[in-house]
Amino acid sequence: MPLSLDNIRVGKRYRIKNFGEITEVQVMARISDENYKVKDLVTLEVFELEDLIRYGLGKDYDIDEI
Q1: How far is it, in rounded angstroms, from Cα 31 to Cα 21?
Q2: What CATH code would you report for 5-65?
Q3: Domain boundaries, the chain
C-alpha cells in the first residue's frame, strides 16, 4: 500500500512507481500541501513531485521510503 502524500518528509528518500516507471527521489522542500521539490537520485535533476503524478495515478502506483 503506497504512502499518503501527507506522510512524505523533507530530507527522506523515496522510490516512486507510476505507469511502469520507477524513480528514486530525495525530498528537498515542501512547496504546498501535496507538492514537493524533489531531486532525482540518478540524474540529479530537480523538479516538482507533481510532475510525476500530473497525468494521474496508474494501477501500479506505489511510493515507499528507501
Answers
A1: 24
A2: 2.30.30
A3: 5-65
In this predicted model, what pLDDT tens digit does every residue of 15-28 receive, in sequence order?
999 998 999 999 99
17 vs 62: CA distance, rounded Å: 5
pTM: 0.87
The mean of the pLDDT values for the chain is: 91
DSSP string for 7-66 = G--TT-EEEEEETTEEEEEEEEEEEETTEEEEEETTT--EEETHHHHTT---TT-EEEE-
